[in-house]
Each structure stands twice: as structure tokens, then as C-alpha cells.
Amino acid sequence: MLLTLFVESNQVKEGQTILLVDDNESVIETVRKMANQNGIRLLLAEDGQEGFDLAKAELPDLIIIRKDVPILDALSVSVLLKQSHETENIPVMLICKAASSSERERLHDAGCSGFIEEPFTGNDLLQRLEDWLP
């Protein structure tokens, strides 16, 4: 599924692309609204394999992926992306519940640049995007 949204923005660079890999409708709707309000191009994938394939094809500026997404989990997707010269520099952020320090270390070792804990709002995500987007 490919959804592209463009709207003017003063807070992030207009037209930057985010790939969201998630099958949770409430999270998809939160991210969709935030993207629509801030000029962000949003790509959607419902599972890790689809997300990996879309990341290789579209080369987004940022990937946000649910930790336990179906088919390929987020850590596997991150490791595969970091092994490819084309995608190794794309930041990968995880959506997860509270992460312990050992889990954070494991996420970092897999190539994840950070995470956002649930629940979150569009404003929470927007504040994090200012740090995550190049």
C-alpha cells in the first residue's frame, strides 16, 4: 500500500519521506494525520517484508517500524537494511512499549537509531521527527 501526502510545513523539511511499517490502525491514523499536517510524504507497509521491500525501492528519509510487526520483525528488518549500501544510512526507529536498558542496547546493536514508546500522539511524534529526520 502506498499513500503519499503533501502539505506545507514549517517544522520539518517539506516533502521528506517516512516509511511506517505497522498494522495498528490507530497508530497508522495518528501518523497519517501528523504527516498530512506537516508536509511529510508517508509510505505505509503492513509487515516487515513489505516494509523492507518498500525501503529498498523508495529509499525513505526515515523508517518507523513496530517492534513486533508480522513476517519479518523490526530487528530483522533493521539488520537487513544496515547490511545494504543503499539503505545503511536510513535511520530506523522502533515503536514499542517501555524498553529496558538491555533491550535498548539490543535495539542499538541491530542498527536501530531510537524508539518511541506507546502510547504517543502526533505532537509527540513530530517533536521526535525534528531529531530523527536528516
Characterise this structure.
This protein is of the alpha/beta class and 134 residues long. The chain has helices spanning 25-38, 48-58, 74-82, 101-109, 122-132; strands at residues 17-21, 41-45, 62-66, 92-96, 114-117. Strands 2-1-3-4-5 form a five-stranded parallel sheet, with helices on both faces. The radius of gyration is 13 Å and the shape is globular.
Q: For the CA atoms, what is the radius of gyration?
A: 13 Å
CATH class categorisation: Alpha Beta
Provide the structure class: alpha/beta
In the CATH hierarchy, the third-tier topology is known as Rossmann fold
SSE string: EHEHEHEHEH
Q: State the fourth-level CATH superfamily.
A: Response regulator
Low-confidence stretches: 1-11
Total number of beta strands: 5
CATH architecture: 3-Layer(aba) Sandwich
Percent of residues in helices: 40-55%
Mean pLDDT: 85
Strand content: 15-25%
> Which strands sit side by side, in order, in the main sheet?
2-1-3-4-5
**Head-to-tail CA distance between termini:** 25 Å
Q: How many domains comprise the coordinates?
A: 1
How many helices? The count is 5
Chart the SSEs and their pairings.
Elements: E1 17-21, H1 25-38, E2 41-45, H2 48-58, E3 62-66, H3 74-82, E4 92-96, H4 101-109, E5 114-117, H5 122-132
